[in-house]
Specification:
By secondary structure, the protein is an alpha/beta fold. The protein has 7 helices and 18 strands. Strands 1-2-3-5-4-6-7-8-9 form a 9-stranded mixed β-sheet, sandwiched between helices. A hairpin with a 2-residue loop joins strand 17 and strand 18. It starts with a helix and ends with a strand.
């Protein structure tokens, strides 16, 4: 009853709404149907709070991740994420579609000016930027994520699944930002380039998880988002080329893949954007990781390497007639 009263008081404070809100309570989650908002179309807007404990009141305060595009139908995936992670958090799912997120300013205003305030006021959250994350997917989600990370003292953690080929600059994001890029290589590589251009360091500032997974909840890594920065320094890089030989007459390329092991033992994918070749007999496409022989290349071994801070990876490929 207290929660119902709270939502109605919140509604009364807003100048406009489209439908009466409804609170649905289930074990490990609460869903607000037609969540009241003065910024977005309220009718059909659902906000689901996935709890790390069976029910309120929670025994302690938790960090929060706002997950865009997620609703009550994703309860099983949210439960799996929270159960399988040593780091616990409150997940706030907002059932926005890719089309909804095209209006970046309105969505960012709704989250920053209405939703975050409501969640912090009504749930036991660690209500500070260092304990608040945003997760999104798709090109529209990437733009919303960038807009929210650019707001001061709001978000410092982010997860982006397949954020599109045209990333928004993150140069003005919080200096303590940490971003996990997930999805296919084409999408991840352009965002990784943007982060490197913004002087962000692989490991403490961002990491990459290459995957064909379509579920945003399946790629969120709470342990990475809230790990101590010193534990996220790269410990070693491992490179491999598939296949390990390349015919000079073949049109089929070989592919370079590099994995990074961090100090805490977590393994992520590293986007090798600027490699060194010795001798320079290969063309390299960073977006796809493809290696092709240049005209005039000679048979023999080509060394592929790159320095990443104080660490280095190195591998070889054999060129054959």
């Amino acid at each position: 009853m207290k929660k119902l009263l709270s939502i109605f008081l919140f509604l009364c404070a807003l100048p406009a709404f489209c439908a009466e809100p409804l609170l649905l309570i289930n074990p490990f989650r609460e869903t607000f149907v037609n969540f009241p908002t003065s910024t977005l179309q309220s009718e059909g807007l659902a906000v689901t709070i996935f709890l790390p404990e069976p029910a309120l009141p929670l025994r302690q305060k938790y960090p929060v991740v706002y997950v865009l595009g997620v609703g009550p139908k994703d309860a099983e995936a949210a439960r799996a994420l929270l159960e399988n992670s040593a780091q616990k958090a409150i997940l706030v799912g907002v059932n926005l579609t890719e089309e909804n997120m095209q209006d970046v300013e309105k969505v960012a205003d709704f989250i920053s000016r209405e939703l975050v305030l409501y969640i912090d006021a009504n749930y036991p959250t660690l209500a500070e930027a260092s304990q608040r994350g945003i997760a999104a997917q798709g090109a529209g989600g990437g733009k919303v994520l960038a807009a929210l990370l650019a707001k001061k003292n709001l978000f410092t953690k982010g997860v982006l699944l397949n954020g599109g080929h045209w990333p928004v600059s993150l140069a003005v994001a919080d200096e303590n930002m940490r971003l996990l890029l997930a999805g296919n290589r084409n999408n991840a590589s352009v965002w990784a380039q943007t982060l490197q251009d913004s002087q962000k360091d692989f490991g403490p500032d961002f990491a990459v998880k290459l995957t064909e997974e379509k579920s945003l909840l399946a790629v969120i890594d709470l342990g990475y988002l809230w790990a101590d920065a010193a534990r996220l320094m790269p410990k070693k890089f491992t490179a491999r080329v598939t296949p390990d030989h390349l015919s000079l007459s073949a049109k089929q390329p070989a592919y370079l893949a590099v994995s990074a092991t961090l100090a805490n033992g977590q393994v992520f994918d590293f986007m090798a954007l600027d490699i060194r070749l010795s001798p320079h007999y290969l063309n390299y496409d960073a977006e796809s990781g493809a290696l092709t022989a240049i005209p005039g290349a000679q048979p023999g071994k080509v060394k592929i390497s790159q320095n990443v801070g104080k660490k280095k990876f190195s591998t070889k490929i054999r060129l054959k007639k």
